[in-house]
Amino acid sequence: MIHSKLVRPFHTLLIANRGEIARRIMRSARKLGYRSVAVYSDADTDSLHVREADLAARIGGPAPADSYLNIEAVLAAARATGADAVHPGYGFLAENEAFAAAVEQAGLVFVGPPAAAIGAMGNKARAKAAMSRADVPCIPGYQGADQSIDAFVRAAGDIGFPVMVKAAAGGGGRGMRLVRDPAALPAALASARSEAAAAFGSDELILEKAIERPRHVEIQVLADSHGHVIHLGERDCSVQRRHQKIIEEAPSPAVDDALRASMGQAAVRSARALGYQGAGTMEFLLAPDGSYYFMEMNTRLQVEHAVTEAVTGLDLVEWQLRVAAGEMLDIAQEAVRIDGHAMELRLTAEDVPAGFLPQTGVMRRWRPPLEMPGLRIDHGLTEGGAIPPYYDSMIAKLVAHGRNREEACRKLLRALEQCVALGVPTNQSFLADCLHDPVFAAASGVHTGFVEERFGASLAARPIPDAAAVAWAAFAAHACMMDSAGPELAPPLPASRPWRVALTLDAGRWDVSVTGRAGGWWIEITPAGSGAGPARLELRGARWQGLDRSRLEAEVDGVRESIWIAPGPDAMGLFHRGQAWEFQMPPAHRSRAGALASGTLTAPFTGRILHLSVAADDHVSEGDPLIIMEAMKMEHTLYAPVAGRITDLAAQAGSQAAKDQPLLRIVQEPALQATP
């Protein structure tokens, strides 16, 4: 099947995306001599990708539907800037058949596959049918036109539990539910259908047999407009949360040469059958017995393409541009070599103990690790920039290449220790925990359930700072108040009265005194309410590093080290020994009794309220679902923390809610039973 597609030389490339992927595409465009055009929403006016482009065009409001998903606005930007080609990046319109067709109808080159190929693979039901015709193994399942609950219940009985409910459209783990109990299937179908409709505009579902403890292995393909197709080996993307990838690597520790050849040939066969052009990815589930099954095809560049670039030495974006301009692939399959090992981490703005909830806010301090041989950092963040609620939670990718897997992992751990992100919670410490995990290090026991299996309930545990971190936070707050002309921070002489501050973090509270003395300071820390005695640390030789006073250096109990700080309103952000902390410094007059009353439900993140299940004066039981919120492409259900009657209902479906905003209150009435 060969699909027609506009292929010709071009000169100005519009990048219909934002953030790190827009910047990454610009790098290859500059290398090939293309002029680059950025597009931006009102939320991205000051973003790096806008600053770095040759031209930039505003395309609408912050919501994706008003900007990055607005096809006419993107095409208008192309006309206004003289662009003659469009690269969609990933996400947003990257796999939108109508967008690819509209680009070509406007006489522009679409840097991607033919629109018909996108359409064929954009629906999982149709994609599985096409792959079966191409003799590619597919997971047993149901993808029928009858979308009734009865049809799915019958199909699940034939397939056998456990089963996986999936949205037929889209990807990224949205609209996906694992069902082990037949009684839970109707609710899973309803939940998946709602999420799929909101995310992809289609509530069509499919059902598949759940493969237990599989690996997620994908094959990268490249195809030109002259009929040549090759594969570039595999990537292992098995470390996931909420069915979304967080660590990827190439090659896969579970794939040998024979399996790589078999999977690669299946992927090439699939691409040929589609008449595919450009870069694409065939995603497979690899079962423990070595059998593999087609899941879906991503008809675009992948987030994790960097690991394939690292081990093959090829620039995939460069080849996308060259193929789109009509060039022929000059790489023979037998010439593709896998050199060493590469691994990628997705640094995301998320609160891990709260269930990986996406976070928004201002990144008061952002210093990515310096790039060095074997280390690559892709990001689109500026220090002091806002992380808005409208887009994905990923803020950076850290990619390491080494002679072997151990070396790549070691480089990534070092990079995490140097990556300063203060002001918004991230998954930085969790990523380090994954890399340190002995099962991950051994590689053989990793599968798509790795995170839940290895970390489980411990994910909800909040880390507790040690005495040194508390001492540094208190001293940093004191240093910010000192009037020092130069970098040196000298204690007042003769010794002054102690300076005192209360620090809180989650449920912890510390009363700290900082006392200047000859040669340095004594810092005394008393944990509140623990009954433990005070800890005393000695700090000497303190000085600022840099004119912006974002970094402090000192000797603490004989160990000389430096920290990064990010002062905020009544807060002190601290990056100490690879760990980010956000200590609160409540004013002395603030009453702890002023906290929200028990039973008050607040927004766990800034986002949109999709659905409200209750009304004022309704009676609910503890654990009842009340509100569904959405932010950063993720839905989250809020449940009743106590039983009682709904009062102070401020939430409205379709409205935005800020983080920690009260949504409703439940007045506890133990004698009342929840209405059926």
TrEMBL record:
Top EC class of this enzyme: ligase
One Pfam family here: CPSase_L_D2
EC numbers on record: 6.4.1.4
InterPro entries, A to Z: ATP-grasp, BC-like_N, Biotin_BS, Biotin_carboxylase_complex, Biotin_carboxylation_dom, Biotin_COase_C, Biotin_lipoyl, CPAse_ATP-bd
PROSITE patterns reported in the protein's UniProt record: ATP_GRASP (PS50975), BC (PS50979), BIOTIN (PS00188), BIOTINYL_LIPOYL (PS50968), CPSASE_1 (PS00866), CPSASE_2 (PS00867)
Chain ranges of the Lipoyl-binding domain: 580-667
Residue ranges occupied by any ATP-grasp domain in the UniProt entry: 128-325
Domain Biotin carboxylation: 9-456
SUPFAM superfamilies: Glutathione synthetase ATP-binding domain-like, PreATP-grasp domain, Rudiment single hybrid motif, Single hybrid motif
Keywords: ATP-binding, Biotin, Ligase, Nucleotide-binding
Cofactor dependency: biotin
Gene Ontology molecular-function annotations: ATP binding; metal ion binding; methylcrotonoyl-CoA carboxylase activity
Classification via PANTHER family: CARBOXYLASE:PYRUVATE/ACETYL-COA/PROPIONYL-COA CARBOXYLASE, METHYLCROTONOYL-COA CARBOXYLASE SUBUNIT ALPHA, MITOCHONDRIAL-RELATED
Protein name from the UniProt record: Methylcrotonoyl-CoA carboxylase alpha subunit 2
Organism in which the protein naturally occurs: Achromobacter xylosoxidans (strain A8)
